[in-house]
Design a protein that fits this description.
434 residues, alpha/beta, Rossmann fold, 3 domains
Length: 434
């Protein structure tokens, strides 16, 4: 089918929710074009996938842009920041500081660079020119217009550092991670099996560009190591750093012992701490902290190490297909990693803080997740099995007896939702609502 016929077929305007196609003359309505697009999925897969994934954080991004003079959208590379900002603010000018010409212009003449955008703009990868933030401060102070500038960045450390120095109190912060289960499900892109989802991960290009995970992730790691790491810290021996990342992947879901990791990587514990910080600021890994309220003095105080995406973990560990996950010794850790990442995504998409912790004592009693709601603590167990057994409730029952709590949830790899008389809800992985 020709582009002209597609344009005529899809040109529907009955809602403010628009998405711009890769071709500028295509303006489609996501909610109304779904049925039509399905018919042409085989002929135009890229066009189909581009419009089908509606980001949950779009609503919060719009709200923040009406409350603050500027908004910073932060997340890992290839998480969809540019696509989201262009979709939410189609009338704003866009400039990427990844472009060498634009970056040189911004560095040499920041006032002249910003003068191009009297009505504001989307500035992609703003941390590449940190000097720009001081000049942005003056522009924002002189204007009462909310949402004038939308900044994006894939390096949380550099962006936060510049915001604290120049734009504190003038800018809102929103995190964007790769697709959530809910987003994939609403777009009819969610894999049928949990193994396939863990293997493919959630990065948009695997779905929107249909790049096989086994090809996309190695290139992502290579690009990240060779380029982004050098922006934060000049690591001379990249081979050692790559080995360090792979060692981290093998420790997914485990307590972070920096000394042990340093011995295996061949560096000291201070270097390990610095490298973990690099991975954190680049949204590769995150540390789940133990809950700070001690109901038992003999509790574990080390954080647990997780990745933001299980597809990246599978690639780093050399897993070649989803079938290998059936008997893989880290399958349970990968499933746990997936669910914790989903819980984080839900909070970040709503603009909420990450209020997740774990709890473990020195006798082996443990709760995978404690959701701290301020006035209450909600325990969650994560189980990779599909058959519900009494062992699933052991951690929550111990916690409830210790704290006097009377509820909790078990998220598992099965399909049936249940509500037990004990107050514990059993939730399938693809129906999470907490």
């Amino acid at each position: 089918m020709s582009y002209a016929k597609l344009y005529k077929t899809f040109r529907v305007r009955c809602s403010p929710c628009y998405r711009r196609c890769l071709r500028k003359d295509f303006i489609l309505l996501m909610s109304k074009s779904t049925i039509i697009l399905v018919q042409f999925r085989n002929q135009i897969p890229k066009l189909y996938l581009y419009f089908m994934v509606k980001r949950e954080s779009a609503k919060e991004l719009k709200v923040l842009s009406t409350q603050f003079k500027a908004v910073a959208l932060v997340g890992p590379r290839q998480s969809g920041k540019t696509t989201l900002t262009k979709a939410v603010f189609p009338g704003k000018d866009y400039v990427s500081l990844e472009n060498p010409d634009q970056r040189v212009f911004a560095l040499e003449d920041p006032r002249g660079f910003l003068a191009q955008y009297p009505k504001g703009a989307i500035i992609d990868e703003a941390p590449r020119v940190p000097e720009l933030f001081s000049y942005l401060q003056q522009l924002l102070d002189e204007s009462a217009e909310p949402g004038k500038f939308i900044l994006t960045g894939s390096n949380n450390f550099l962006l936060q550092h510049n915001i604290v120095q120049s734009l504190a109190g003038r800018i809102a912060y929103l995190y964007l991670l790769p697709f959530s289960i809910k987003e994939l499900k609403s777009a009819d892109l969610l894999p049928a099996g949990i193994n396939e989802l863990m293997y493919n991960g959630s990065y948009p290009p695997v779905y929107t560009q249909q790049i096989p995970a086994e090809k996309w992730f190695p290139n992502y790691v290579s690009t990240y190591v060779e380029r982004d790491v050098r922006l934060i810290k000049n690591i001379t021996d990249l081979a050692v750093f790559e080995r360090f990342i792979k060692l981290c992947a093998g420790r997914t879901g485990q307590l972070l012992n920096r000394n042990s990791l340093g011995i295996e990587a061949g560096v000291d514990s201070k270097t390990i701490a610095a490298w973990i910080g690099i991975l954190e600021s680049s949204f590769i890994v995150h540390l789940l902290q133990p809950h700070h309220q001690n109901f038992n003095k003999r509790v574990v105080r080390m954080p647990k190490l997780y990745f933001y995406d299980t597809g990246l973990v599978c690639s780093l560990m050399g897993i070649q297909n989803e079938q290998q996950l059936n008997l893989h010794p880290l399958r349970g850790s990968l499933f746990e990693n997936l669910i914790i990442s989903e819980l984080i995504k839900k909070r970040y998409n709503a603009g909420k803080p990450r209020n997740l912790y774990f709890w473990r004592d020195n006798k082996g009693n443990e709760v995978d997740i404690i959701i701290d709601e301020g006035n209450s603590l909600f325990p969650v167990e994560i189980k990779a099995g599909q058959t519900i057994t009494p062992a699933y409730f052991k951690g929550i029952n111990f916690w409830n007896q210790l704290t006097g709590n009377k509820e909790g949830a078990v998220i598992y790899a099965g399909e049936k939702m249940q509500k037990r008389s004990s107050g514990i809800t059993i939730i399938p992985w693809n129906k999470m609502n907490i």
